[in-house]
Design brief:
Elements: H1 2-18, H2 25-36, H3 41-51, H4 56-71, H5 73-82, H6 88-110, H7 112-118, H8 121-150, H9 163-195, H10 204-217, H11 220-245, H12 250-258, H13 268-287, H14 292-311, H15 317-334, H16 341-349, H17 355-375, H18 377-382, H19 385-399, H20 401-407, H21 410-417, H22 424-435, H23 443-453, H24 459-487, E1 494-495, E2 502-504, H25 511-535
Antiparallel strand pairs: 1-2
């Protein structure tokens, strides 16, 4: 048994380390910055709950607008291809936007009166929420393309590497990318656990001081991503010196290091339609039109669908069918609605989950998600995306049952029959331990397939179009979440900041029906999408 375990460790963990290349490190640093971004998640949840009078439906609507920049990853990715020589500038711009977003929150927590003197705190929060995803999508588009560039096509002697080895390296690169993101979240979870230790006994003023320190620590995020592109530049200059020592001319070195195998031509369909989409989004968003989000979503879907149709021409008929089947299944799986902020409020108010416990729960999620990447590494490499989605759909449905049970008093029954051992916190920890390893399982094989299939002269564009479509599914998820929160209205207690009088009482009566609805949709939608692809004769990666 020990020998079998040692073989498993070697194949799933040590082998990954042996396959690591120095060229992989720069994009991994940018990805790690995205993982570290979760540092402010718990702080943001409590700040909104305690200091802002925003409803669950409004927060779901805000999340929809926050996902829109990810739908614009398509033109951003194309710009990365066009400006490949100067891609570092996009990372610097993204880092600046992230820093401004964090500085706004630092001002709201540390100097709230001064910030409110300029405009309402809710308006500052909305601005901060919308700035940060723009910064992250700029950096992510560059990092995605850098992962394709990081995988060599020829060996050190200039001979082409066989297709199977290249595919394995792409899988390793994308696996390491997920490890970097989740590893970053593990680090920040440890920071949160340390920062919130004993916070349940602190005054609101002392808690606010912790919030402020966490937002200040988060300023390391833009520094980390910028360090990644600086390292990439150092590695390029080192490689240039090596090539020069072998007698290559400056022109050859410039071509080999900075120019793609095939020159990228500006696709005005992508740029023009994206510019029109941005103008429409801003115009409709500012108009206050009741169905602005639906219009933006439909327009996004149409534009990205058209771009996918044009990119399908770059692939063989078999690869095109595989691509189409894959994105339909992934879209349906990622478009599932969520319970929304109301469930978190209920856990805080009714189950007594404080900052300290949520930080430990977050650490468990991050750690087990990272472990799951290694645990399911062979499963991800050897199974099709359809097999993976079926497995995840059934597992997620089963794992949603404890939350429904707790709403109806399951934790009270179990605590009474176990001497208080199996209480709400025990069930939450156990359920999280089972669910967390599944979090990233669906993404790695899809990203590896995209990276391996991307045409060399359109690597960022291809990656961005595919990612835009799957990210658009998250916007669909937020729309669904908003609709469900409008049907099943959930409110937490909101007090007037000046008088302390309760302006809105807490009402979690509809949460049970909301959880059941979310669970049923989560089961039926992905399985229906898989059935549709089979009826249409499509395949999946």
């Amino acid at each position: 048994m020990l020998t079998a375990f040692q073989r498993w460790i070697d194949r799933n963990i040590l082998e990954l380390g042996r396959e690591m290349r120095l060229s992989y490190l720069p994009p991994l640093m940018v990805y790690c910055a995205a993982g570290v971004s979760t540092l402010t998640a718990i702080v943001g949840t409590f700040f909104v709950k305690d200091h802002l009078g925003l409803s669950a439906a409004f927060l779901a609507a805000l999340a929809f607008w926050a996902y829109i920049p990810w739908s614009l990853k398509m033109p951003i990715g194309h710009l990365v291809d066009l400006l490949w020589r100067y891609k570092a500038g996009l990372v610097y711009l993204g880092a600046a936007l992230i820093a401004v977003s964090l500085l706004i929150m630092i001002g709201l927590v540390g100097k709230p009166d001064a910030m409110r003197a300029v405009m309402p705190a809710e308006a500052w929060f909305v601005l901060s929420t919308l700035l940060s995803p723009v910064g992250y999508v700029l950096q992510d588009a560059v990092a995605d393309a850098m992962t394709v560039e990081a995988v060599p096509r020829v060996d050190e002697h200039g001979r082409p590497i066989d297709a199977g080895t290249v595919r394995l390296m792409h899988t390793t690169m994308q696996m390491l990318g997920r490890v970097a993101i989740i590893g970053g979240s593990v680090l920040v979870s440890l920071v949160n656990v340390a920062m919130f230790q004993g916070s349940e006994n602190l005054s609101e003023t002392d808690k606010a001081a912790i919030y402020l320190r966490i937002y200040e620590l988060a300023l390391v995020i833009p520094l980390l991503s910028v360090s990644g592109v600086v390292l990439a530049g150092v590695l390029k200059r080192r490689e240039a010196r090596r090539l020069a020592a072998r007698g290559h001319s400056s022109a050859d070195i410039e071509r080999m290091l900075h120019a793609p195998e095939e020159k990228t031509q500006a696709n005005w369909w992508i740029l023009g339609s994206s510019a029109a989409f941005v103008a429409l989004s801003i115009g409709v968003g500012l108009s206050g039109f009741a169905y602005a989000q639906e219009i933006i979503f439909a327009t996004s879907f149409a534009i990205i669908g058209f771009m996918i149709h044009r990119l399908l021409r770059e692939l063989s008929p078999e690869a095109a069918r595989t691509l189409l089947g894959t994105i339909i299944v992934i879209f349906a799986f990622r478009a599932l609605p969520l319970p929304g902020a109301g469930m978190t409020w209920w856990m805080i108010d009714e189950l007594g989950f404080d900052q300290s416990f949520l930080s430990r729960l977050d650490l468990l999620v991050s750690t087990l998600t990272l472990a799951g990447l290694f645990l399911f590494r062979r499963f991800m490499a050897e199974k099709t995306i359809v097999d993976i989605v079926i497995f995840l759909t059934l597992a997620s449905t089963l794992l949603s049952l404890p939350a429904i049970g707790m709403f109806h008093g399951l934790h009270e029954w179990t605590a009474a029959h176990t001497g208080g051992v199996v209480d709400a916190r025990f069930i939450a920890l156990a359920n999280t331990a089972l669910e967390s390893p599944l979090g990233q399982v669906s993404m790695v094989p899809m990203l590896a397939w995209i990276a391996n299939s991307a045409p060399s002269h359109l690597k960022a564009t291809f990656f961005a179009v595919m990612a835009s479509f799957t990210n658009l599914a998250l916007s669909a998820s937020q729309l669904g979440t908003k609709y469900l929160n409008q049907i099943f209205t959930i409110t937490r207690e909101v007090k007037d900041a000046a008088t302390g009088i309760v302006a809105t009482p807490a009402d979690y009566g509809h949460l049970g029906a909301l959880l059941v609805t979310v669970t049923l949709v989560g089961l039926l939608l992905p399985l229906g999408a898989i059935l549709l692809t089979r009826l249409l004769g499509l395949r999946s990666a």
